[in-house]
Give the backbone structure.
Amino acid sequence: MAEEFSGTAYCVKCKEKRDFTGEVSVNAKGTRMAKGKCPECGTTVTRILGKA
Ligand SMILES: [Zn+2]
């Protein structure tokens, strides 16, 4: 089951920080990232959480 993350991420479309809830994933380098959608415009937003 995927870990959930709630917080803020910068939306490139709104050009503002938005609160979002998304799924945490780990890339090949071991960096944890949260991926979700901007609640205002639906654009995918990502936030880098750092090393696991
Ligand atoms: Zn947006």
Notes: Strands lie at 4-11, 16-26, 31-37, 44-51. The longest strand covers residues 16-26.
